[in-house]
Amino acid sequence: MKQNLKDGIAAQGYDVVSFFNGSPKKGNAAYTSSFNDAKYLFASLEDKERFEKSPESYAPEYGGFCAIAMSEDKQLDPNPKSWEIRDDKLYFFTRKFFGIIDAKRQWVKKPEELRSLADAAWAKMNA
Q: Is residue 49 helix, strand or coil?
């Protein structure tokens, strides 16, 4: 599976569990876990343990690439400060996408349609 990794680290070093708590935090190298050949960092031992019980529940959609870019069959780095939890899934967005100031604003206008396009592109990319 393709993933957006920097030096093998997922989610640009952010604690993916913290997004589900509503306050994203940078991870700490003292608390790491591996999933799908990626290293995840966590802000606390508690978040690390929550992740390890169900990593697929916390890993970002589309391998951590920008969701709206994926809907257009592209892989772009997101800005982890632009994110959304929808249907218990974590989505990241880039701040600038082909002239769009914040891709998340476009996503929330028609999330089901864009998610369908992104899901299809993701499946094709990982076939």
A: helix
